[in-house]
Amino acid sequence: DEEWRSKRPLKRGWLTDGRTRPGMLADLEEAVRLRRIIPRCREGVGEFMSFIRDEKQRPGHAEGAYDDHVMAWAGLWAIRASARFVTNPALVSTRRREPVKVHGRW
Question: I need a labelling partner for 96 at 20 to 30 A (CA). Which of 49, 58, 76, 86 fits?
């Protein structure tokens, strides 16, 4: 199914599969290593610390651990590249009811 490549997809969102997951995790690893992302909650830090490579060298959570925070960060970091940030409130339509980034803050 090539719908995710379409300029007008039927479903919104980010497709995470065997093709997109490695790149997402590589980009997240770089962001964490360069301290562009700093997880602050105890559960998130724990999940990052227990995210390992298995016997087949596939990244994932250790046995008995979770990877929800890691995958959420990876997805958010991946879609960040296509996000549009508005720094001038005058450019925002009054019909939109979304947060606007002003002077680097929400």
Answer: 76
Q: Are 20 and 26 in contact (CB under 8 A)?
A: no
Question: Could you tell me the pTM of the whole model?
Answer: 0.66
pLDDT along the chain (106 residues), means of 10: 58 79 94 92 94 92 94 91 71 56 54
Amino acid at 98: E
Give the type of residue at 87.
Answer: T
